[in-house]
Design a protein that fits this description.
The protein is of the alpha/beta class. The chain has 14 helices and nine strands.
Length: 319
């Protein structure tokens, strides 16, 4: 399968699991197509044509024509210049590596990370937070993220991949959508007597058990194993990065009792304590590789010959 098609399959899988639903995404993509028609001069020159079909600014091919045949990929949570040098060295030793699958965004994908923050509006709406309130709090947060990222040296990895001749793509929000959907089905849809039961349920997920054995188990950051959970939600798994801590209060007002998340900021934990919300940090890396594994399960059905070499925290678990 060509790199372009493999990447498009990943985007389609992300859309199928997106909290916004396919119809809303189609409307967003149509707006981008219509917007392009009215652009002129430098604005037209700077328009990103990928926005007409790919709703995820943090996920894109950062190097390659897209016509490369791909059957062997190196996949990692973070792949930066050191990992690219490792890929090049492994190639020298005879390892077949056609392309890199990078989870956390690099290059233009990192530059456009704020593009994916609005996904959180629909995640929050699904747990009872009014859309208008979520949007009002997330807009300033999105702007802060963009300003912060703007200062970074964004294109080191893109250039390294180019110099080493390594086709590479980032796939962030699509895989996060998959783990968000998975957590809702596997964990949040069940009833629990206490947080201890939720912790036990998390450890039945193979990626979480693997990381627990390595010393990176899910952890209760507010509440105790004996705490009654109330309404359990997975609201910290997709949408680019953490939202503002003020959203914790909104979740409490919406009747949420326990929040599952990849990670919490200290300010979020402070708000959780203030509003008596239980918080379980499920392990960032275990959550990421769970989403990546779910994505590979989909991609391997479409490309039967696809082989993977895991690095940088990734461990293959097939379902």
């Amino acid at each position: 399968m060509k790199l372009n098609q493999l990447f498009k399959n990943a985007i389609e899988a992300g859309i199928a699991a997106d909290p916004r639903g396919k119809k809303r995404i189609e409307k967003t993509l149509k707006k981008e197509k219509d917007r392009e028609k009215d652009l002129k001069g430098v604005e037209k020159e700077l328009f990103d044509p990928e926005r007409k079909w790919n709703p995820y600014g943090d996920s894109r091919i950062i190097h390659g024509t897209g016509d490369e045949e791909v059957t062997h990929i190196m996949i990692g949570v973070d792949i930066e210049t050191p990992e690219m040098l490792l890929a090049d060295r492994l190639r020298e030793k005879g390892e077949k590596i056609d392309a890199l699958f990078i989870h956390h965004p690099e290059g233009r994908g990192l530059a456009d990370l704020d593009n994916c923050v609005p996904v959180q509006i629909d995640v929050l709406a699904s747990v009872g937070v009014p859309e208008n309130q979520a949007e009002a709090l997330l807009k300033p947060s999105s702007a802060r993220i963009r300003r912060s990222i703007h200062t970074k040296n964004l294109f080191r990895e893109e250039r390294a991949a180019e110099l080493l001749g390594l086709p590479a793509f980032t796939c962030h929000t699509p895989t996060d959508n998959l783990v968000w959907q998975f957590m809702n089905k596997q964990i949040c849809s069940n009833s629990y007597e206490d947080l201890g039961e939720i912790m036990n349920a998390l450890l039945k997920i193979e990626e979480f058990m693997i990381y627990a054995k390595k010393g990176n188990a899910p952890m209760i950051v507010n509440g105790t194993r004996d705490s009654r959970p109330g309404k359990v939600v997975a609201s910290g798994f997709t949408g680019g990065t953490n939202g503002p801590e003020a959203l914790v209060e909104k979740k409490a007002h919406a009747g949420v009792g326990t929040i599952l998340s990849m990670h919490f900021t200290e300010k979020e934990v402070e708000q959780g304590k203030k509003h008596n919300l239980n918080m379980i940090q499920c392990s960032h890396m275990a959550s990421d590789i769970c989403g990546m594994n779910l994505m590979l399960d989909i991609l391997e059905k479409k490309e039967k010959k696809l082989k993977t070499l895991g690095i940088s925290g990734f461990i293959r678990v097939k379902r």
